[in-house]
Structures are given as C-alpha cells and as structure tokens.
Amino acid sequence: MRNEAEYVWPTSDFTRIPFGIYHDADVYEQEMHKVFRGPTWSYLCFDVEIPNPGDFKCVNIGDTPVVVNRDKDGSFHAFINRCAHRGSIVRREEFGNAKDHTCVYHQWCYSLKGDLLGVPFQRGVKGKGGMPKDFDVANHGLQTLRVENFNGVIFASFSDDAPPLEDFLDEPICKHLKRLTHKKVKVLGYQRQYIHGNWKLYTDNTRDPNHGGLLHPFQVTFGIARLTHGGGAVLDKRGCHNISMVEGDSDSEEDASKAYEDSGSGAYMTDYSLHDTSMLATQKEFGDEITLSIMSIFPNVVFQQIGNCLATRQIRCKGVDAFELYWTYYGYEDDDAEMTAHRLRQANMAGPGGLISMEDGEAVEIVHRAIKREHDKHSVAEYGGRGEIKTQDTLITEVPMRGFWAYYCQLMGIDANGAAA
Ligand code: FES
Ligand SMILES: [Fe+2]
Predict the structure, then answer these.
(1) Which residues lie closer than 8 Å to 44 by C-beta, 6 or more apart?
(2) Do 337 and 236 have their domain in common?
C-alpha cells in the first residue's frame, strides 16, 4: 500500500481518476477520518422515524456506528455507538424506544444525551472491589456529535470545524431538500443492499446522469429518463453535491428512438411494451416539470425522486471493498391510500432488485473487480467537457462527478495539480 498522495492525477480538473484510490486500504482509513469525521455533515434519518421521546435509531457514518435519539424535550442527540468503558456496541437494535441506554457488557448506563448515569458495583461489595474513589461518571459519557435538523432531515457532524449545515449544503441543495420535504414526511419502508465495491464507485454513479440514459434500458424504453430529455445537473458552490434533474415530458418517442438509433445505443428497446402501464403514470406533485431527480449530498446520501417514488439512499461503508446501501422509502402524511399504493408500485423501479436501479449495484461491482490490479491506470471523465466544474444544462455529462473529486481531494489533502502528467 502507498500513501494516497503518491497516486498520479494527470489532470488538475479531475478528468482522470486513479483506479488505485478505490482499492487502497490506507486511503480508506484516511477517508474515515478526513471525509466522514472531517468538516462535513452526514445524513442520519428523518425526524419522523424517531417521533417520541426516547425513540432511537442506529445508523452509520462511514463505518462508525452511531445512535441518534430524541430527548424528552423533543431535541435530538447523536453519539458514537461505543461504550465508554471497554468499547462495546451499546445499542444493538436498529430502532427502539428507551429511557436510557445500557451497555450489555457491564451495564454502564447512559442518558439520552449520552451522559454516563451509573456504573453497577461502582463502590464494590463490603469495601472490596469497584471503581477507584475518584472515578467520576461526568468524565465518561458517550462521544457526542453535532446534530442539526433541516426541515425534518437530521444530519450530524463529528467536527467543530464543519460550517453550519445550511452553509455546507448551500442554497441549491437546501432549496431542493425543501422541495422534497414540502409536507410532513411519512416513511413507507426500507430495503438494505450489500454492494461488493468501493463506496466512491457509487458516489461516482449517482453524479453521472449520462449513464442513466444508457445503463438502464427500462427507464429509456418507457420514457422515464432519456438523454433526449431536457434537464441537467445543478451544483453547489463547492461542486461536491448536485441535483440531476430530468423533465420527462420534453422529448417525443420519434425523436428519442431516432436519436438512440443514430447514436448506436441499444438502450431504447422499441419492441418492448408493458401490459400494465400504471407504474409509469407519474403525477406532478411539486409544481414543476421535474419528473426525476437524483440529489447526491456529500458524502453519504442520495435523495431520489423517480416519478412519485421518493427515497433516500444512505451509504454505510463496510471496508474498502464493500458498502451497504440503506434505502428509506417515503411519501407524505396527507397521502391517501391510492397515492401510497402508487408510490409503492413505483418503488419496484428502485432498490436492490429495482427495474432501474438494480443495474447500479452491478455497475459498481463490475468496475470494482476490473480495476483491482490497475492502480496506475485512470478512468476518463470527459463527458460535459474539461475544465471548470459548474452547473450543467445537459444530462450527457460527468462534470458533477468531478465536483465530488475536487472536494474529496481538498479534504484528503491531495494535490491533484496535474504536474505528474
Ligand atoms: S463495555 Fe460497556 S459496560 Fe463494559
Ligand atoms: Fe443509475
């Protein structure tokens, strides 16, 4: 293994990404500190998932287990799910409700704020054993994180140096997040997917709207997202987040089939049809023409709108070679039964076996396998042009992906100045 600074970045605009960066265990170790515990904010969950005092949920930031809970006064606290005694996981359930958190190992008990409340047999028995007299529970709480709630979406940060959440997200992301949470959210269910590839291959995938009109024949064939549609990708000021958007009514079948035929792509399969097309019937619910949006928020979450199928996809790292994708499907509290059924019907397009997103997991894995021994080679990311990283008015672009790498390298202390070309 070698230091991440030794990888060659032949261009300073991130149009070349060294394959070794996806397979290096030392790089992965540094990412856990500099990216996930660095001056960033990570998505945890929706506040409605823990609606009552004492409700908690266990998540991950990078590969660190984290508990987020609601206190008696309604406020939220998050802490590392690691006992201050000898380091055990404290909460092993995915969800629950509790007045406090007691570690199973020696039963140290913590408050909903993460403060240590009590230690069994602290004074020993009959004057023997127990903790030293000067042991002070006040010094042995759980390690807490900063928490912010943006319109019902909870984020946390390990770092005092992280800017306020809204500054980190920046205006376009805040605006789109408000769009997606414009009413009180109702969670509809979860799916979990284990992908055998490096987590950054997935952040590349969701920042590459170009693949959406090529890798996914279902959405091309049935007009959900094609490269002939209007749309583009809006970037934040750092370029690390982005929203890829598709206007689904902006092309015609004739123009689309001709464009795909002319381009040599087989993604538009004109001889395929559906007996039941109800899955395709998207209702416009946000007062705009955007029928599909994929918002990638650095570093760990995607907010998805595929028609009326709304979901978050949380990246939970499992080492350099794998990650879990944790899907949370949602609608709104005022949805009627028909709308909920429609959202769930459209959920067949997303998730581990989704008619569309099934291919994304596979794409990550086939890249991961092929580049394993190619540390000195590079991917080519030139769709959308070279040079400046900025908002795109086309779907045929990889510029948002380069925005991820620019900010990633800044956090990791990598100088991709192109000097090694
Ligand atoms: S490790 Fe938690 S109480 Fe000992
Ligand atoms: Fe995809």
Answers:
(1) 57, 59, 61, 66, 68, 78, 147, 154, 155, 156
(2) yes
Q: DSSP 3-state helix, strand, coil percentages of the chain (rounded to 5)?
A: 25, 25, 50
Contact between 313 and 304 under an 8 Å Cβ cutoff? The reply is yes
Residue 284 CA to ligand 2 center (angstroms) comes to 22
- Which tokens in the block code for residue 265? 């792509």
In a domain, 336, yes or no: yes
Pocket lining for ligand 1, CB < 6 angstroms: 83, 85-86, 88, 103, 105-108
| CA 51 to centroid of ligand 2, rounded, Å | 32
Q: Which residues pair with 316 in a beta bridge?
A: 324
DSSP 48-72: GGS-STTEEEEEEETTEEEEEEE-T
Nearest to 223 by CA among 295, 282, 178: 282
- Cis peptide, bond prior to residue 299, ω within 30 of zero: yes
Supply the pLDDT for residue 416. Answer: 87
Q: Which atom of ligand 1 is nearest to the CA of 87?
A: 1
Q: Which residues pair with 128 in a beta bridge?
A: 125
Q: Are residues 322 and 394 in the same domain?
A: yes
Domain boundary (96, 119, 150) is at 150
Mean pLDDT, all residues of the chain: 96
How many domains is the chain built from? 2
Tens-digit pLDDT profile for residues 198-253: 999 999 999 999 999 999 999 999 999 999 999 999 999 999 999 999 999 999 99
Atom nearest to 90 CA in ligand 1: 2
Atom of ligand 1 nearest to the CA of 103: 2
Question: Would you give the end-to-end CA distance of the chain in angstroms?
Answer: 22
Q: Tell whether 37 is covered by a domain.
A: no
Residues 278 and 354 in one domain: yes
Model pLDDT for residues 256-313, shown as the tens digit of each residue: 999 999 999 999 998 999 999 999 999 999 999 999 999 999 999 999 999 999 999 9
Which residue lies with its CA nearest to atom 4 of ligand 1? 106
The residues that bridge with 315 in the sheet, in sequence order, are: 325
Residue 185 token pair: 């959210």
CATH (domain of 249): 3.90.380.10
Half-sphere exposure of 336 (CA within 13 A, CB side): 1
Identify whether residues 316 and 388 lie together within a single domain: yes
Residues 243 and 130 occupy one common structural domain = no
d(CA 204, ligand 2 centre) in Å:
10
